[in-house]
Amino acid sequence: MLTMYSTTWCGYCHRLRSQLDREGIAYTVIDIEQDPNAADFVMGVNGGNQTVPTLRFADNSALTNPSIVQVKAHLAALAATAADPA
């Protein structure tokens, strides 16, 4: 599952959401201004900063303000790792 940590006013978040939608990539959005635990996670992976969009992947890895190309590459790498029986 892909989770996007966002805010309602973040232009970069809106852009990435529309790109994910266009690519058919499923995700859940969590507003860090409404969820203190989400804000803590974002600050934890961003050196104390509430930088959004921050994406959290099924393996708990994270990307901050990624391009759609970076998101697709990370998802492909995770899928390849999951498919590798070694």
UniProtKB/TrEMBL annotation:
SUPFAM superfamilies for the chain: Thioredoxin-like
Gene3D superfamilies: Glutaredoxin
Annotated source species: Catellatospora methionotrophica
Protein name (database record): NrdH-redoxin
UniProt cross-references to Pfam families, sorted A to Z: Glutaredoxin
Membrane-spanning segments: none
Glutaredoxin domain boundaries: 3-57
One biological process term in Gene Ontology: cell redox homeostasis
Stored InterPro entries: GlrX_actino, Glutaredoxin, Grx-like_ET, Thioredoxin-like_sf, Thioredoxin_CS
Any one GO MF annotation of this record: electron transfer activity
